[in-house]
Design brief:
This protein is an alpha+beta fold. The protein contains 5 helices and 4 strands, in the order E-E-E-H-E-H-H-H-H.
């Protein structure tokens, strides 16, 4: 799908927010202007949304979500430490850049799944002894994500090596 899609159309039932040149955000579902705090509330509620430039139709969702994160980080106890941010920056331009996003996404999702399990189990006070098993499950999921990433990296590197050898005219046995 083109990144210059019509600014009012939806994609897979996502709520469309238009961003105007004057920096105002317009929610097409409610026909009203909204603030970043309103978009944050939609995200917190699990509402699928897409932010589009009102003039060009360009997808601005990532930049708006990053703005919300920046505001949240400035407000209180940050989630993203300076060390973590520096490490993420180091992945840009690195051969591993393409693997980092999916790795982080899967780990955050696994953490959210564990949080949901803990919330469900905390309704019953007898669930407290189960916390070590829940955290063990998270550790296992995290290990599996890392192993999948490592396997993908090996396949990617093998493919690149084969392509390089082919370009150099070296034949494999």
């Amino acid at each position: 799908m083109s990144s210059k899609m019509n600014a009012t159309s939806t994609h897979d039932g996502e709520r469309v927010i238009k961003k105007y040149p004057n920096r105002r955000l317009y929610d097409t579902a409610t026909s009203s202007y909204v603030a970043l705090a309103d978009i944050k509330q939609l995200v917190m509620a699990g509402e699928p949304l897409m932010v589009r430039d009102a003039k060009t139709g360009e997808d601005l969702t990532r930049s708006i979500l990053l703005q919300i994160i920046l505001e949240q980080e400035a407000e209180g106890a940050p989630i993203l430490t300076e060390r973590m941010l520096a490490n993420v920056i180091r992945f840009y331009g690195n051969a591993m850049q393409g693997f980092m996003g999916p790795y982080l996404e899967k780990n955050v999702q696994a953490f959210m799944d564990i949080q949901t399990q803990l919330a469900d189990r905390s309704k019953d006070l007898t669930a407290l002894p189960l916390m070590p098993s829940v955290m063990g499950n998270y550790a296992e999921q995290s290990k599996n994500v890392l192993m999948d990433l490592q396997e993908q990296m090996q396949k990617h590197m093998q493919k690149q090596t084969e392509q390089m050898l082919e370009v150099m005219g070296v034949k494999r046995r």
